[in-house]
């Protein structure tokens, strides 16, 4: 009987595996189709300075509204794109689309802030990334200084020597580089110092835990101190509450991004944020 149960368990496991693989395959085919049919779009999430509540940037986030399943999170479909190599054309599309949007705002006289685009490991490690980025900038007329590329610690840790070369070639173009989800990977502090970085993004898992018992206050403080010591801008992501904002402000964090200040929104809605005063929350702190 035990043997039978084991075998059934195995069959069940195998069936579940096959179902998962079939799901992934279907998702990948649909994603490929979405990319070809322009069924993907970008959202933009504002970033503000904590001191003056000035709009200083926007993170570009990919969105996919599946015709049958509805909106699918990039946390779900980006890994699929990464496994299948689709991330290369997908990532190239995001970059071009973001630069074109920046240009549209610029042409309209709206003074858009720099845009931060997420890069996957495969994109960063593909030969010719700096040339590709330079070509898109030239084609769209977006200045390199208005583009920020978000890398993760894992990307950078895999082959630090090679990463350093690529980063220098990107930085030489005038592009800003940031480390996303900082604190969740394994950064060599020695390398952090050698890389031509501009910004550290404190991972939202630490921000979420702020002020909780046994929370991540000390980690957040340490990241802010480290960033400052290295001469980097430090931004916290996932800021949802005034208490989190106040703590970050007290600790000298430079910038914030999160639902408290603005959710990721489509380009036409983001246009309304351009050329307008920033929302009140952090600005009020100045007068208090
Ligand atoms: P990420 O780069 O760390 O982006 C931040 C994520 O946090 C976004 O999730 C954003 O919507 C979410 N977020 C922002 N503020 C808050 C907040 O206050 N509270 C909470 N709970 N969440 C907040 P999203 O848009 O679902 O993207 C998830 C991840 O997918 C991104 O994490 C990034 O790793 C990846 N991703 C998104 N777009 C792209 C892309 O174009 N290329 C690549 N390679 N990855 C992308
Ligand atoms: Mg990011
Ligand atoms: Mg992040
Ligand atoms: Mg993240």
From TrEMBL:
Residues 24-278 form the EAL domain. Coiled coil: none annotated. It comes from the Bacteria. This is Uncharacterized protein. It comes from Oryzomicrobium terrae. The lineage of its organism: Bacteria, Pseudomonadati, Pseudomonadota, Betaproteobacteria, Rhodocyclales.
């Amino acid at each position: 009987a035990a043997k039978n149960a084991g075998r059934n368990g195995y069959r069940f496991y195998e069936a579940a595996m096959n179902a998962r693989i079939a799901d992934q395959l279907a998702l990948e085919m649909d994603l490929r189709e979405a990319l070809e049919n322009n069924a993907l779009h970008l959202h933009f999430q504002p970033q503000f300075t904590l001191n003056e509540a000035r709009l200083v940037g926007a993170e570009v986030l990919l969105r996919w509204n599946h015709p049958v399943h509805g909106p699918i999170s990039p946390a779900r479909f980006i890994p699929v794109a990464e496994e299948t190599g689709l991330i290369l054309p997908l990532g190239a599309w995001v970059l071009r689309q973001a630069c074109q949007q920046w240009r549209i705002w610029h042409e309209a006289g709206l003074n858009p802030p720099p845009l931060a685009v997420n890069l996957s490991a495969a994109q960063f490690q593909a030969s010719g990334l700096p040339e590709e980025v330079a070509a898109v900038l030239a084609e769209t007329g977006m200045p390199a200084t208005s583009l920020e590329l978000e890398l993760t610690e894992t990307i950078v840790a895999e082959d630090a020597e090679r990463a350093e070369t690529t980063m220098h070639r990107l930085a030489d173009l005038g592009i800003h580089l940031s480390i996303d989800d900082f604190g969740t990977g394994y950064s060599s502090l020695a390398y952090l110092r050698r890389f031509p970085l501009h910004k550290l993004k404190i991972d939202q898992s630490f921000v979420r835990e702020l002020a909780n018992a046994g929370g991540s206050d000390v980690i957040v403080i340490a990241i802010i101190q480290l960033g400052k010591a290295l001469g980097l801008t430090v931004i916290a992501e996932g800021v949802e509450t005034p208490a989190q904002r106040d703590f970050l402000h007290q600790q000298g964090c430079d910038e914030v991004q999160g639902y408290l200040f603005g959710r990721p929104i489509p380009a036409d809605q983001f246009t309304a944020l351009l050329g307008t005063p920033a929302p009140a929350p952090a600005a009020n702190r100045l007068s208090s």
